[in-house]
Amino acid sequence: xxxxxxxxxxxxxxxxxxxxxxxxxxxxxxxxxxxxxxxxxxxxxxxxxxxxxxxxxxxxxxxxxxxxxxxxxxxxxxxxxxxxxxxxxxxxxxxxxxxxxxxxxxxxxxxxxxxxxxxxxxxxx
Length: 125
Fold this sequence. Notes:
The protein is built from four helices and four strands. It has 125 residues and is an alpha+beta fold. The chain has one domain (25-123).
C-alpha cells in the first residue's frame, strides 16, 4: 500500500502554472523559426537558387508540448535536393556525389539561442 502525506499548500505550484499560461512561447518559436529559415537559406549551396528559397517552418502546438520544424519544399524528380546535398547521392552514370553537411552547422546556433531564450522565459515566471 502507498500512502502520501502532504504538509502545506500548493500556492507556489498554482501560481507557477497560472503564470505559465501567459508565457509567450509561440512568439519566441515563430521568431526563431524565421531565423532558422534565413540561416538555412543562406547556408544552402546555390545552383539555381530554388532549394535555398524553398525553406519554411511550422509550429505545432500539442497537449503538453510545442514543436518547431523546418522543411524544404523543393522537389526534383521525386527527391529533395536539400537532402541530396546534405547526405550525398548516386548518379545515373554510377558515380557518387558526396554529401555536404550544411544543415546542422546552420541550424545549431538557432537551436542554441532558442533553448536559451525559452529557458529565460520559463525562469522569469
